[in-house]
Amino acid sequence: MAMANRIHYEICGDGVPVLVMHGGLGLDHQYLRPALDDLAGSAELVFYDHRGNGRSAPVEDWGQVTLESLADDADALRQALGFDRIVLYGHSYGGFVAITYALRHQRRLSGLILAGTAANLRHPPNIPPDADPDAVAAFGALFSGPMGSDGEWAETWSRALPLYWPEMDRDTAADIHRRTIYRADAWNRSGPALAGYDVLDEMARIDVPVLLVCGRRDFLCGPAPYEDMHAVLPRSELVILEDSGHFSFLSERERHREAVTGWLAAL
Predict the structure, then answer these.
(1) Mind listing the pLDDT tens digit for each residue in 3-31?
(2) Collapsing DSSP states into helix, strand and coil, what is residue 50?
(3) CA neighbours closer than 13 Å in the CB half-sphere of residue 136
C-alpha cells in the first residue's frame, strides 16, 4: 500500500502488469476486491483510487477533473511504478477512463479490458419490468440532482445496487459497503465530466488486443453498446456472461476469471 502523486494504490499478484480502474465516480477500488484478486496468478494487479476518490487525496477544484485528467493520472502512476507498458482493466465509469487512456496513451498499452462500460450514452437504461421498485426509485434519485453528503450518496447507491446487481449476494454487498469510502463530490462530478462523451468512431484507432466483458443482464451497459464497440475495434474479443448484471466479476466469478486469464495468457 502506498501513495504516488497523491493517488492511493495497492498491488497484488505476479505477471503482466494490469492497472485496474474502478467505477463511480464516488466509489473506490474496494468493490473490485477480493473478486479480481482471482487474477493475481496471471497478473500483477494495481488497484487504485481515482483522484478525489476513496483514499486518494482530496480535490480542490473539481472543474479540473475530466476523463482526460483521470487518464493522465493513470499514466503518471504507470510511470511512477516503472512500467513501460500495461494492460488496463476498466469497469463501468473506469471503462470510460480506460478508453480515454487508450486514445491518449496507446503506445503504453499491451492490452485493454472493458467491463460494464460503453463508448457513448446513446443506449438508454433497460430497466426490467420486475425490478425492485425501491432500487428503481433510488436509481432515479442518483441522477435527479447532486448528492448532498457522503452519507446520502452511500445510502442512495446502496438502495440502487440491486438494479445493478440483480443476483446480489447480500452478505458480499454488506462487506463491500463496510470497506468502501464514499465521496459525494466525486459522484457529483461524474455526470458533468461525461458531457458530450461519444468516442465510438475514435475507438477504431485502438490497435491493441481488447477484451470486452459484458453481462447479459446489465441494464445499463448490456449487449447493444458492446456490439457497437466490437464492430469498430480491430482486435477485439467479446465475451457475454449470460447470468450477470453490471458486476460480472461478482456474479460469475469463475467464468470471468477463466475469460480474463485465458485472454491475458494469449497476449
Answers:
(1) 445 899 999 999 999 999 999 999 999 99
(2) coil
(3) 10
